[in-house]
Amino acid sequence: MAGDRTRLGTSSLLLVGIVLAVLIVVNLLSVNRFARIDLTENKEYTLSESTKRMLRGLDDVVSIKVYFSKNLPTYLVTLNQAVRDLLDEYQAYGKENLLVEREDPADDPELEQRCRVLGIPEVQLQIFEKDKAEVTNAYLGIAVLYEDRSEVIPVVQGMENLEYDLTAAILKVFRKEEKVVGFLVGSEGPTLEKGLAGVKGALERQYRVVPIDLARGGPISTDVHTLIVASPKNLSDAALYAIDQFVMRGGKLLAFLDPIEIPEGSIQALAKRSGLENLLERYGIEVGANLALDARSNANASFSQGFLMFSMPYPFWVRVLPENADPNHPMVNKLSGIVLPWTSTVCAAADAPETVLIDTLLMTSEFAWMKTGGYDLNPQQRFQDAPREPQEKLPLALAASGIFPSFFEGKPIPTIDETDGAAAGGSETISRSAETQVVAVGSANGFLDDMIGQFPANRVFFQNAVDWLTLGDDLIAIRSRAAVDRPLREISEKGKALARFLAVFGVPILVVLFGLVRFLRLRNRRAAALAAEERSA
Amino acid sequence: MKNTWTITRKEFRSYFDSPVAYIYITFFLMLSSWLFLRGFFLVGQASMRGFFGILPWLLLFFVPAATMRLWAEEKKLGTIELLMTLPVKDHEVVLGKFLASFFFLTVTLALTFSLPILISVLGDPDGGAIWGGYIGAVLLGASFLAIGLFVSSLTENQIVAFIIGITLIFAFFIVSEEFVLYNAPRPLVPILKFLGLGAHYDSIGRGVIDSRDVIYYLSVIGFFLFLNIRSVESRKWK
Question: What one-character DSSP code corresponds to residue A76?
Fold first, then answer.
């Protein structure tokens, strides 16, 4: 009998073990094949496909360190929660290859030092408490680390672009193959060594930068992902053909155009056309043969006259106000203080192809006008008297995405040299592009070394533009998120007290009443049953 | 199935036959609303996140209180022998008791619907997130119930069942909390994270239902109900 019991006991334990094993296997299987349903109205917690794909593709541990102070003012509590939620979503797809850690550097000198090295600043925040404004210091940064590489989001200001920024950061630190950015040289413009060393430094941290010389024609190597053309001059047909065919093959083009040429020591400028304008026009982008001036939003420029240095508002140096940068475009919507000196307008052409979608990125204020023809750049001229033209907002930079038609469609392939008849690369013209993107900016001067020193936002814009184009396939689909704000209606203290009272006591009172009624009914029924029993007895 | 249903109805009714259930529900509703509303106007958001954030901690105490009686009392009064001589199978009784406590919990949670109604008067909350929160609460609560019910079957003392129930649920809940993970040895972290009842609640709580979390909760419920059946059966070989 005792043996039976032991046997029963053992088999029972064995069964428990088997059930446990089955459940573990089921759960392990579910880890790799899972589905997530987002019930929120705006699909607040749904990551874009490209982010999910990127996270699934991780095959080594990338770590995300969130350096948020614990004691944040109340108005940042929602943001803090939203960041946590977004990272939870990342974690759900990144699984064991994504390590999210949260740390508060406030009381840890070692961590503070680390934050400084990473480039995460301690920011000053205003807190309003009991009608008193106070200032507190806090950390709101995120660092993405992989091996010896790091990318940081120094201050998280909102949720709008956090997915874009995070995914871009992970892509950058985790890059497997180095993406190649080509830079057009030999068109007499500034080069990466001379004049553009500042932006070059920023680019080389992430990409392999190669010079592209089209003096002998093309084609441009298929390795090149993005081609940067800055301040081009007199591009030959063969060079244009190479650029056109590069775009047709799905290459990305970033064009910084210069509408004018300033002879040394002169304040009179000459109009300049490089030939690239025609190409862009065919793509649906119209580069104006003009200079934009902004009477209200401009930067101070310093000029010397003899031994005298003076600085004054200079309408030719257009300062783009944050509200005039496309709020939905991750390339520009966080930037304030972009200054485009001597810039032309860049707008969608009237006959832009239907397959091309154009977003205007940067605009002047509504107090701007254009100058055409002879350009007097003298800062001391009387600008305010000049504009009799209507003042309006003018577009200065745009991003075009889609399928572009070739400029050389139906035209003969240009040759380098009439005598040897060498083709400019490629034997057959591709007439329609693959899905690709082109970004055009009306100024190249703004990105020269001395300018980005003065206007650091310009460097960030340059970098964002290259990132957006180069990492584009993975990033373009990431939409900017609507703010996660669902404020309560204005309500008086009395109203709040009433709401509290109703919530705390309303239903409980009903429950108690229900209980009493039920109890009384039961008692009556019992009494009636008892009485009936007595009667029958 | 018919037997299960009969037991469910009997047990469910017995909750409401004593004043205890009313005190229980009233206390739960008042405490949860009061705790939630303390920070609600300060944050000023039309959201139930705060409520679903404190819910696990309330359920930690309320669920063992709702399950402690279910087996312990039968054992103490000896009615368990009577129950088991009836022509019902062990698993039917276990399932019946579980379902009764489950419906009791659902009724309690349903009575908190006054909060979302109040919030929609005061603002424009995200309905999907609130439904998600309730689904999460029901799954979490049901897992707590399964654990509490199992613990109740181990003892004939209700207080012991209550205390062990809280301890076990607490342990299962906090293994995935940040401060535990932070101090745990690295290789154990993913395992603890997976085991924790709390980690799986986070995303459902804000309106994102992940099949992994649902499967996990169903596994926990299934496993403890199975243990419960085994423990009831064990009287045959103890």
Answer: G
Residue type for A231, please? Answer: S
pLDDT greater at residue A169 or residue B28: B28
Token pair for residue A377?
């750049």
Could you give the CA distance from residue A218 to residue A247 in angstroms, rounded to a whole number? Answer: 13
Q: Where are the alpha helices (DSSP H) in chain B?
A: 2-17, 19-43, 49-77, 79-85, 90-110, 114-122, 127-152, 158-174, 178-183, 189-195, 199-205, 211-233
Say what the pTM is: 0.69
Here the ipTM equals 0.84
| Nearest Cα residue in chain B from A79 | B43
The pairing of beta strand A62-68 with beta strand A98-103 = parallel
A237-248 and A276-283 helices, crossing angle to 10°:
30
Residue carrying the six token digits 């490209």: A50
Residues of A in contact with B125 (CB under 8 A): 486
Token pair for residue B40? 């609600």
Read off φ and ψ for residue A91, nearest 5 degrees. Answer: -65, -35
Residue of B nearest to A96 (CA): B190
Burial class (CB in 10 A: 0-12, 13-18, 19+), B184: middle
Least CB-CB distance to A12: which of B29, B45, B234?
B234
H-only helix segments in A62-106: 77-94
Which residue among A39, A41, A511 places its CB closest to the CB of B111? A511
Chain B interface, mutation test: which of A22, A46, A504, A526, most B Cβ atoms within 10 Å?
A: A504
Identity of the residue in B124, B194, B219 whose CB atom sits nearest the CB atom of A486: B124
Q: Tokens 């083009």, residue?
A: A253
- Angstrom distance (rounded) from CA A305 to CA A307: 6
Q: What is the pLDDT of residues A341-387, one digit of tens each?
A: 888 888 888 888 888 888 888 888 888 888 777 777 777 777 665 55
The residue ranking higher by pLDDT, B158 or B44, is B158
Question: At A87, which amino acid appears?
Answer: L
- Chain B hits for A4, CB-CB cut-off 8 Å, are 237
The three-state secondary structure class of A501 is: helix
Q: Answer yes or no: do B223 and A19 touch at CB < 8 A.
A: yes
**pLDDT averaged over every residue in chain A:** 80
Between CA B191 and CA B169 the distance in angstroms is: 17
Which residues of A fall within a CB distance of 8 Å from B219? 23, 26-27
